[in-house]
Amino acid sequence: MTDVTTEAPVPGARIPAERGTSTRLAANVLDVFVRSIVPVLLALVAGAILLLALGRNPLTFYGDIWKGGIELGAWQDSLMRAAPLLLIAIGLTVVFRANIWNLGYDGQFLLGAALISGLGPWIVTREPLWFALTVLFLVAGAAGAAWTIVPAALKAYYGTNEIITTLMMSFIGVGVANILIKGPFQDPTVNIPETRVLPLDKMLPSIPGTRVHVGVLVAFAAVIVVHFVLTRTSFGLRLQVLGANPRAARHMGVKLPRVIVMSFLVSGFLIGMAAAADILGIWGYVRSNWNPAYGDTVIPFVFLARLNVLALVPYVLFYAVLSTGGDLATEHANLTTDFLLVLVALILIFMTLIEYFGRRRALGTSYLTPGLRQSLRVPWRTTSKAAAE
Amino acid sequence: MTKRFPGVLANDEVSLSMYAGEVHCLLGENGAGKSTLISILSGMLRPDAGEIRVDGRPVRIDSPRAALELGVGTVYQHSTLVPALTVLENLLLGDARGLRLNTRPARERLAEFASTLGIEIDADAPAGELALGRQQQVEIIKALWRGSRVLVLDEPTSMLTPQGVAELQGVLRRLKETGIAVIFITHKLHEALAVADRITILRSGRVVGSLEHVRLEQSSAEELQAEIVRMMFGEEGRTATDVAELRTDLSAEEGYGAAHAEHADTLLELVGVSARPIGGSDPGITDISLVVHEGEIIGVAGMDGNGQRALAEAIAGERSTSAGDVRLYDAPVGKLDVAARQKLGLRYVTDDRLGEGVVTSLPVSVNLFLKRIGQRPFWKHGRIDRTAIDREAQSLVTSFDVRTPSVATRAGTLSGGNVQKVVLARELSNDPKVVVFHKPTYGLDLRTTRVVRDIIRDLAAGGAAALVISTDLDELLELCSRILVLSRGRLVGEVENGPHASERVGELMIGADEEAA
Questions:
Q1: Which CATH superfamily is domain B7-242 in?
Q2: Does A21 touch chain B (CB under 8 A)?
Q3: Taking CB atoms and an 8 Å cutoff, what residues of chain B touch A252?
Q4: pLDDT(A380) > 60
């Protein structure tokens, strides 16, 4: 048999052959720019037009966001606001990569928060501070992870839909957290249902020279570790195979129950850590019925970062600046803070547009699971070919 | 009706005309541009240049809906029916005008279609429970539902049993009588000769030849075959023996596959193995015992859905067994998982290449090592060594002749034959001892089919053992020394390959069916 002369030109797949590492790097940098910066700029422009239509000066408004979110040390507040968001976002990225939907983040977060604000005041007075804080971080993480065990086991061994089970467990988790706050962890000295307050000197220490607590460092360290695990390790590849095609994962000998349970546990742990960073770094106590719903806020960014942990960082930072500085800006412009959500929505719209047009480029670095990628790009057209990709 | 198509297709100009009441066969290897052409006709893709004319008028087909409105209905290779809905509901899906489903006229219409085509269809049966051949007939009716005059069939026989193919040919004859133009896309030469009034041969996106009605009637089958083979493969295909399909006649002289030596070692043994079914159409397997020796190729024949998948998965370790023993080199491996069995040299080439054989969104290089995730030398302390993977992948791609722009290309962009080569490269590298092949040449073009069969023979000649599970009896007759017959999850007989083996296998298949009935 001799060589075949007719190599199949695959329709629609223009893959540059053998790209060098340096050009690939350049292409990646360009991708990141187009994906994470351009839509934000477009949203700001559209927001400015909207402000003009409302009779406000957009320059003053954006200037106020800048002042309130970045200038005069406000960037430190923004960073601190970003820490729990970032931890939750990477926790969600881990499971979403396996195409598993952990939507129980509120329950996992609040349980962690309730546990450490209950145990915190007790443990910090008995143990050395660094040890106590480490233990509290681990306790919060463990609480978040533990709250995923039931949905994880049901999913792994019985194939139960985890969207339902995690939501259910979330309701229970929020309820249990409130019971803890009103019951055993109630501060006996006040009439309001809240836990005892951590003394200021027993909270997370600041990074020297700033007001920024070290929880921010924990969050960024977690970003790096999780990014490494997802992209360079066998566990990360197994997650990716499971997310792309569970049948293939089974065929390849991936131990599905183990991977499913592991990804749930890691996700819950990171979400619990977010509670620790927030409570130990900023609040110092929890009041009953408190629910910042960080998870709902970051989910869009998780998907827009294409389940890429590094790409999450600019999104979350941007949102943190926007929400920190937005308090001041909306007050000055006599708008409600809801206007900030309009800006976020505009970013979403432009991101979706870019995702759609980016289809024409080889989006090799896109990390959405194939089904999800398809539904994000062309939800109205699902061809057999697209499904096969 | 004339439909001219001077368009740019996979970079080359293609012109075709279709006439009413005629079956026009498009013949070509995988990647010759057949699928692109259908996609354009059905409105999924737009031509970069050129135009389509219906009844002499230039038209634009820019959506599947537009195609239907112009009277072009398409039946794809894979089912597009919604399994949970009934036949009638499926037909009404594309036709939902108004809020209420108007079933009575639709029911009558279906009956009318069924009698025209000479088939029987239960309007209230869930589509998913129909046999594949029946589902395809529903698809044909669905394509014609809105009055299409051109019917495009994409590889319609690839999922059918021989009886199903015969039935389809009957349907096509009746369609012709009603004046519908049929475009029949295939890469199987004998099918084209059996049904076509006109054959157009595509190669590399170009029309390389066509045979008119008159030629088809006047020339003898051998002449036509030789001519078509020459057009399909160019100069390389000078001799018809190059093409696997045409070699079956020759296998008699080659001695019916390799008979195993008297004292060869037993490599794989199944003792009374049973496994539970997964899913509705899967019968599982019951009490299967078989032995495969060193250097042997054993075939497992049977119609689709008789437990082939369960058998393969039970051997590979993907499915747990409920009874019996799987033994590899005389040691039970029932407790070992897929990865452990893979390490011992037990490999499984799955039939569902795109569905589970590769992860389409991952690069070829990673796909080549997906069964060795976490193992040295590609992962060290759990960390991936991409250089090692790329290097090894490159050498596998070369030795298995995988046509890919680079090892970093996503596996999903390769053609079916090349995906199969990727799967083979993964399973047959790193010292294979016992290999289960499940429909190894299903859906492949003639040339790749031949390459794959040669690979299986070489493997056995090298001392490994192969178990070939196939629904293609000719393939088993060509390759195997013994053929086992699987029916409803049980082995119902064993036939030594030789003269009349085909008849005896057929009898066993039918006999088992009658007993059960």
A1: P-loop containing nucleotide triphosphate hydrolases (3.40.50.300)
A2: no
A3: 338, 370-371, 373
A4: no
